[in-house]
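Re-run requested by the PI after the first attempt was lost when the workstation crashed. Everything re-entered from the original request form. Ligand of interest: FE2/S2 (inorganic) cluster.
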Amino acid sequence: MERKEFLGKLGGGIGLTCVACMMNACSKEETTTPTTPTTPALLTVNLSTQITAVGDYVSDKGIIVVRTAAGNVAASFIAFNNECPHRGNAVTFVKTNNTFNCSLHGSNFNADGTLKNGPATTGLIKKNLQVTGTTLSVVS
Ligand code: FES
């Protein structure tokens, strides 16, 4: 075999090898399942033991969660940041009149978090929650 013929065959072989490598690389399937990153819950409530009756609430980690209806579904609960929008004092839920009260300067908020009486000028900051089975998670 002459040199020119040898190089011609060698070049063709490399080309076929490279094409085969690229085809192989493109045809590989992902063997791992992509996962969606999950953000840890800000607060978790066990609904089999906590806030089981309408009007029950928990206040923890700067969040107040109130049960507003029966059933373990998200629509049966409401959650707020417990900071009073006036000056940041922690508000408390008063089950007997279904309001959130701030003891520092006397602001009151309705059960839906809207402002009832100042000096605060805005309502409470609502939080987002999810319910899965008997676990309530405040997620944001
Ligand atoms: S901090 Fe709540 S009323 Fe002032």
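Saved to the shared folder this time. The longest helix spans residues 3-27.
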